[in-house]
Amino acid sequence: MGCDNEDEDDFWMRLSAERSSPLVFHDAGDSRLVCATVSGAYVSTDGGTHWSARIGGMPKDIYIDKLAGASGGAVFSATLSSTWVYVLDTAAWSWKRLGEENASAFHSLPGGELIIARPLNGLFGSTDGGASWTPIAPQVITPTKKVTVIRSDTAGRLVIGTTSGLYISDPSRQSWICPPALEAKSILTVTCTHGKIYVLSDELHRSDDNGASWVNRGPVVSSHGNDMVAVNNAVCLRHTTGPFVEFSRDGGATWIDVTPPGVWVHYYDGKGFPEVPLFIGIDAAGYAYSGLYDLPLLRSKLPLQRM
């Protein structure tokens, strides 16, 4: 995916150095930002200038790499050493493990319903904070389909990415479609925004009509470890090979290299290798976030839709 060059210093600004090496970021609402680093998770109530002490209730050796908002708190999935799902009590700012649940992916709808993909068991929903679970579309999302990402649009339809295709429900979840253009594709991530659906596999696909038709925006640089955030026509992609971060103002037709400043070349046994940005995130206002090892959290200077 070719791109023009743009001074990345015009795109990013560094926030407080109190919390470096961010692994994942989440806007928990009410001006609260949650950032997970290699040393634990922290919360900021002033836009990232100051951060709390480490949030307790979770083993220190667990790295957090997935999170989603939910009624009563933010739900995090801890991986590497575990796949247990934890709920963040935002009153006490402490973690609580969500029963015996584990997840390959999860998502929360605006009304608070939690959707979870259990490895080898399919898709389930809970409207009571995880106390009970109901299977969702077991005839479509079968245990043989590994769910990689769960999203929803403003109409309440579920958009499910799997290792063998994309599946979109109607609002009642009684009817599902798998777009032919994405059949058998291994889906990395999905973003739903302003009636558009962006789907990242080995190629970037976009629908402007809630999935009725699709445009192929071409192959991505790397088909492993990609992240994507989008607001309407503004899209940010993170790759594991350079250019590491690209930005598009026109829905993926043209791209600009906005790799964050401070991506240094390190040397080990005489060989150089680049430092890859750890993630791409977004807050409710549309600001993009990223980060690198040993450097502070980065935020775009303007919301994506204004860049």
Q: What are the key terms here?
A:
307 residues, mainly beta, four-stranded antiparallel sheet, globular, disordered N terminus
**Largest beta-sheet details:** 5 strands, mixed
Query: What is the structural class?
Result: mainly beta
The number of helices is 0
How would the global form be characterised?
A: globular
Explain how this protein is built.
The structure is a single chain. This protein is mostly beta strands and 307 residues long. It is built from no helices and 30 strands. The protein has a five-stranded mixed beta sheet with strand order 1-25-24-23-22, with no helix packed on it. Strands 2-30-29-28 form a four-stranded antiparallel beta sheet, with no helix packed on it. Strand 8 (84-89) and strand 9 (94-102) form a beta hairpin. The two termini are 20 Å apart. Residues 2-8 have low confidence and may be disordered.
Q: Strands, helices and their partners?
A:
Elements: E1 4-5, E2 12-14, E3 22-29, E4 32-37, E5 40-44, E6 63-70, E7 73-79, E8 84-89, E9 94-102, E10 105-108, E11 114-118, E12 122-126, E13 134-136, E14 147-152, E15 158-162, E16 165-169, E17 176-177, E18 189-193, E19 196-200, E20 203-207, E21 215-219, E22 227-231, E23 234-238, E24 245-248, E25 256-257, E26 265-268, E27 271-274, E28 280-282, E29 288-290, E30 298-300
Parallel strand pairs: 1-25
Antiparallel strand pairs: 2-30, 3-4, 4-5, 6-7, 7-8, 8-9, 10-11, 11-12, 12-13, 14-15, 15-16, 16-17, 18-19, 19-20, 20-21, 22-23, 23-24, 24-25, 26-27, 28-29, 29-30
